[in-house]
Amino acid sequence: MKFNNLGLIPLLLQAVNDKGYTNPSPIQKKAIPLILKRKDVLASAQTGTGKTAGFTLPLLQILSKKSISHHRKIRALILTPTRELAAQIYDNVFEYSKYLELRSTVIFGGVNQNPQVSKIRNGIDILIATPGRLLDLENQRLLSLRNVEILVLDEADRMLDMGFQRDINKIMNLLPINRQNLLFSATFSKEIKKLAKGILNNPVMVETSPQNTTVEAIIQYVYKVDKSKKSSLIIQLIKEGNWKQVLVFTRTKHGANNLCKK
Ligand code: AMP
Question: Which residue's CA lies nearest to atom 12 of ligand 1?
């Protein structure tokens, strides 16, 4: 399947073409047509699968269908847990929208709010945000979410891991009830399912890999061993197995240094 079979408009296909992509990734093939049909989507997708284009391209298409009013309002909100992710998504949105009359900006904490506020004041259609800074600016009445038509929750599992549950709930209360919701998560814990239930309406599930499973080709072994004997065990395993390439994860930097020396 090619990009031009997904129902995307030529101005977006041109932007995709400029990026040099030849074929849509599995998540893009599945998610793009559903989002264009205005479905709520619950997608399991990890970073690196092309999920950002998977939600950004149809989102841009939907927004570009309506003519832009003189006074722009935030019509799409993309929530993401970290500033790095927010900045990456913004770069994607910026590039894919280069042939469209849509404006976007990104906000996150830890930096002066003024440049972010002036971009919002100038009028934007798409806002990419981390939850804390978003609520902060909303509390100061520096932005309004009352006109949001599409909500994207990106890396929802990480948002919960980072303790954003309460912030997410608060943000949901600031949005109109009628909107399209897209939730992306690498894992599907009980908590994510609960979150999704509270936010999405009759969502279509999109999976590109089986839920919460490990790669079949990998055999996993567990050794129960006293803490004090862990390093000697791994050294013994490496020696006996004559392993030439080994990737070892440790809990702390200090532990990694110690083990490495041994
Ligand atoms: P993401 O999972 O959204 O972080 O994307 C991972 C990387 O894949 C990014 O560098 C994208 O620019 C790239 N990418 C996205 N879609 C495609 C595609 N269809 N073909 C090739 N690369 C892609």
Answer: 50
Q: What is the pLDDT of residues 14-26, one digit of tens each?
A: 999 999 998 999 9
**Within 6 Å (CB) of ligand 1, which residues are found?**
21, 23-25, 28, 47-53
- What's the number of CA atoms in the CB half-sphere (13 Å) around residue 66? 12
Taking each helix axis from N to C end, the angle separating 83-96 and 51-65, rounded to the nearest 10 degrees, works out to 50
Asked whether the CA dihedral 33, 36, 40, 45 is positive or negative, the reply is positive
3-state secondary structure 188-245: CCHHHHHHHHHHCCCCEEEECCCCCCCCCCCCCCCCCCCHHHHHHHHHHHHHHHCCCC
What is the overall mean pLDDT for the chain? 94
Closest CA to 82 of 143, 128, 144: 128
Q: Report whether 234 contacts 248 (CB < 8 A).
A: yes
Give how far the C-alpha of residue 182 lies from the chain's centroid of Cα atoms, to the nearest Å. Answer: 10
Ligand 1: centre distance to CA 125 (Å): 23
Is 60 exceeded by the pLDDT of residue 46? yes
Predicted confidence (pLDDT) at residue 209 exceeds the cutoff of 80? no
Summarize pLDDT for 83-122 with one digit per residue, the tens. Answer: 999 999 999 999 999 999 999 999 999 999 999 999 999 9
* Cα dihedral 78, 79, 85, 91 in deg (nearest 10): 20
The residue nearest atom 6 of ligand 1, judged by CA position, is 48
